[in-house]
Amino acid sequence: MTRPGAPSILVVDDDPTVADVVRRYLERAGMTVELAADGDTALAAYAARPPDLVVLDLMLPGVDGLEVCRRMRQSSADLPIIMLTAMGEEIDRIVGLQLGADDYVTKPFSPRELVLRVQSVLRRTVAQPQQPRDLLRDGDLVVDPARRTAALGGMPLSLTVREFDLLAALMSQPGVALKRAQLLDQVWGWTFGDQSTVTVHIRRLREKIEPDPASPARIQTVWGIGYRYEPVAADA
């Protein structure tokens, strides 16, 4: 169903019952939905008309969900991707987050929960205008929350939706030790959930902004607590 101005969602799942339920719930929430039952069809649909968000099952015939995620992420750094994973697929879920997925929902899941996750991600991108905010600066690292852009050494940073929000949350509270649960709440909008999601995204951020990700200067681990952003610029 096409709705002018509505967020477009690509739902990729080879289970027709699950796909139809997800489609109906998303359409009731005012979104336009396209379905794909396998990885090849999903990639073709994405190439023909990039959606605002992808709901992606990892277990697909042909090209699997992890490879679909990897290829989509290569094409677009800021395309929101929410994975659907089975309860026993923790390793695949972590790999998916490492490949750049923004969020995940574990099967069996509540369709209402999935809609809330989709709306949460879209609020960061297309659903609501951002209020103007001051630039976040730390030496050669500059983040513009209003324009949702980031640059390091004058070069644009390629960040996913969640990576950007996580970096902005950390930089806006320099020197403050933030618990993983706090970051889940601030960035993902979860009051509970798998805190390894934060860990994986922190690892990806370090790979993009730290000269030596194994010995980070900016995003430091506070053992037993979470993470702290330490400015490297004297006047930051």
UniProtKB/TrEMBL annotation:
Residues 133-231 bind DNA. Residues 133-231 form the OmpR/PhoB-type domain. It holds the Pfam family Trans_reg_C. Gene3D superfamilies: 3.40.50.2300, 6.10.250.690, Winged helix-like DNA-binding domain superfamily/Winged helix DNA-binding domain (1.10.10.10). Transmembrane segments: none annotated. SMART domains: REC (SM00448), Trans_reg_C (SM00862). Residues 8-122 form the Response regulatory domain. Keywords: DNA-binding, Phosphoprotein, Transcription, Transcription regulation. The modification 4-aspartylphosphate is found at residue 57. This is Response regulator transcription factor. It comes from Hamadaea flava. The lineage of its organism: Bacteria, Bacillati, Actinomycetota, Actinomycetes, Micromonosporales.
